[in-house]
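Section: Multi-chain targets

For targets with more than one molecule, the full set of components is provided together so that the structure can be written out for the assembly as a whole rather than chain by chain. Components appear in the order listed by the source. The example entry contains two components.
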Amino acid sequence: MKSKKFLALSLALVLILLTVAGCGKKDNGEVTPPTDNNGGKTDEAATIDKEQYLNLYLVAEPSTLDSSKGSDMYSNRVLNNVLEPLTRLEEDENQNNFLAPAGAESWEHSEDGTVWTFKIRENTWSDGVKVRAQDYEYGIKRSIDQDTASPYAWILMPIKNASKVNSGELTVDELGVKSLDDNTLEITLESATPYFEQLTYQRVMFPQRQDIVEAQGDKYGSEPDTLVYNGPFTLTSWVHNSEIVLTKNDNYWDKDTVKLQNINLKIISDQNAIYNSLANGSFDSATVNKGEWKEKFMKDENLNHIEIVNPSINFMFFNTQDKVFKNANIRKAFTIALNREELADTVFYGVPAPAYGWVPPSINIGDDEYRQVAESPIKKLADENKDPKALLIKGLEELGMDTDPSKLTVKISLGGTDQWFRTYGEYLQQTYIKTLGINFEVEQMEWPVFDGNVKKGDFQIGYMAWGADFNDPINMLNLFKSDAPAIGTGWVNERFDELITLASSEMDSAKRLEYFKEAENILLYEDAAVAPVVYPREHVFRYKYVHDLGVTPFGTQGYKYSYTEGR
Amino acid sequence: MGKYIMKRIGYMLLTLWIVVTITFFLMHSIPGDPLAHMAKNLPEQIKQNYYQKYGLDQPVIVQYGKFMKNLVTKGDLGESLRYPGRSVTETVLTNAKVSGRLGFQAIAIGITIGITLGVIAALNRNRWPDYLVMFIAILGITVPVFIIAALLQYTLSVKFELLPTTGWGKFKHTVLPTIAMCFGSIATYGRYMRSNVLEVINQDYVLTAQAKGVSPFNVVRKHVLRNAILPAITILGPQIAGIFTGSFVIERIFGIPGLGSYYITSINDRDYTMIIGTTVFYAALFVIAQLLVDLLYGVADPRIRVSKNSK
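Its structure, encoded as tokens over all components, is:
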């Protein structure tokens, strides 16, 4: 039914959670495991439940467990638990992410940041074969290989020759990835890449066994018995579109830490069915995004409530080539005329948070959350311009157009045809007619049509959602770089391009922060090419007996440390 | 008779070919492609590699030629684009079995109860059993299935915790979806049977039978039911096909791994091979069901048995 809304709204979710990324510690050697995993172990052992299992769910069927193919968050969720990436983005009790060693015991990089050496840990595949550095090498190479046609290979482009290998110019042997011996993996980069660590836990860098992949051919990853596992769990059953069962992997190097014996993942997309299942205890944890259910669960004493801000953003964007919106003051007027608090409360039922910056919360720079250390350009813009209508008139003057706003007609295009988009459009209409005194039209169309119009530049204002792929501000800000624009604003700014280029290879995070702040300021405050609306937020409800279950949007610790106590 | 069936099969193949061809060109003409479900502006090279791998860079007519060749020579519908490594044929058949089990349960219960209720209503015309049955029938037709399903789920599995909310595998998982699904058939068959029985009951042969002193039960069984059931068989055809294709809504609400969801999701995902696969499957079932229904007519009513010298 609500397929279009589902599509458009879940853009954010799907995109964001395609991958997971996080805030790494800068110096690998200093990474310390969280104390609660090892510290209280003996105490836990005395009180934790005898039967260790979790009943959880996935909203959609994972596309494939072939880590080189597919890119959906659902298969990522499973893959993170059944394979051992080089690193894991774990989380402490305050939901702060930190990069922890996993498949790699330790790693170091050359002084210029271009050569990374990973020491691969002693570990065994579920079929008893030793895990070798060559498995990681093969996994990366296969992801970038042109013949694999991996939709997610682009994220690995910082690796030396990756782009040429992917276009078929060079063979995979010339890729900057090689295993020096069974325990040492060396990766050479095109140039210093400050966020390279954030790529080491992405699915396209997961280990794969060449013999298994070649034996299975195209079937690899489509059924539980078509691949082997080296993560905390193995996939023991997969009834497509129905249920997945994960079972503790006794060959896993850190198996003493893993307490759960089984995790049952039901595949269910109906929201009410999920909430009903949480309510009667069939699920141990669920994400709740409906206002009325949220209220109900808030009152339930058996449930913990965890609020998560996703690293994604819903925003309006202007066609800067349009005869009206080529003027920055007009774009600014439209940006500040919105009351984001009210919008989040009414149209979105209070689920998301109002957005005053471009880089969403939960994205880090160095050890800090970017939003905590950067100001909010939209707030500054609104504080300095109390009257959006005056800005609009000023802009119209600059364009030499009729300065009577009531003679101006502006249209927003929405890539969704359902009721939610209608409500949203009506809200905007009402707001802009009231605050700016203009005529405001709303046009709804299916997502692919909308997408096509934007590419042709056939729109005035558009609305979209975008999620970060990995945990670094550059992942959100380079969307506006003029050589590879991802959002069809037609906006070009030389200084912005320069700042993004600088930040791409600068290893010092203090300097990068300055670049990002200036770039964000140009984008939102000076030029107002886009107007952020809200940061999507999620409400996770979880029975109190569930402990240490990964919850952060970027985090990849998954079910490894989780256990139940007092079920 | 044999010749008749052969001729019908010939028409069936022709119909299928037309359906496949139209679907093939239609689905390639809708905007978007299989990478659209990622909803991200992927770099050009990544897209090119993908199109090349799955042959999407070639003209649609070439793709059509390849597809038809594989279908006719190998019976192969190809590999799903959304779920790499899974064969469409296998996916369709596996999921159709699940849908089939549920659909069969629902339709068997639906027809039995529906026909019984319809007859009861007709025989008690304008008395309370009639009103009650028609009330149920109107509810069954007007209340959307997702509301019935949600109500059942909320009362029986959340409030009273009698049955599982979602899942598949055991008989208990099929109870709620079956009840939710059979409501529609009960209503449809109930109403059909009521009006048919009312029509038949005033026929001369029924009067004759009654006059001859045939017991009321036998009048209904031998004379009324057999004649009244004919029109009901007409609506059976599409329903038989529907048994295996499942219900998107029911499957979604109860988390059932049936075929229904693929009809919707494959289109949204632009999973071309899956769109064609599900369409071929439904079209084939539909034409086969139509043939079966036509043959069933003959069983139920000797008058319309295909005569040997009809042509």
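The two ends of chain B are 11 Å apart (CA to CA).
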